[in-house]
Specification:
By secondary structure, this protein is mainly alpha-helical. It has one domain (25-89): Orthogonal Bundle (434 Repressor (Amino-terminal Domain)). The protein is built from 5 helices and no strands.
Amino acid sequence: MKFNDYLAQQMQDAQFKAEYDALAPQYEIIRTVIAERDAQHLTQKELAQRCGIKQSNISRLENGNANPSLAFLQKIAKGFGKELHIEFR
């Protein structure tokens, strides 16, 4: 079974869907950081140096093992030469 088929099947369960939806913002942050780091051809170590933090902090964020603060995300944005924008949808 393909992952997308499995996910579609699981999303029929209301409890699973609620948990999945609750994690969506965290995974959006992770995907955004990884995509920008790749677009700028940076290693985790290079991004960490730009941000003034440890490479392990970048790794934990990208692996979903961190709950980043606003200040941390601002450091990441600055490391990318970008501004952090938060919006409600």
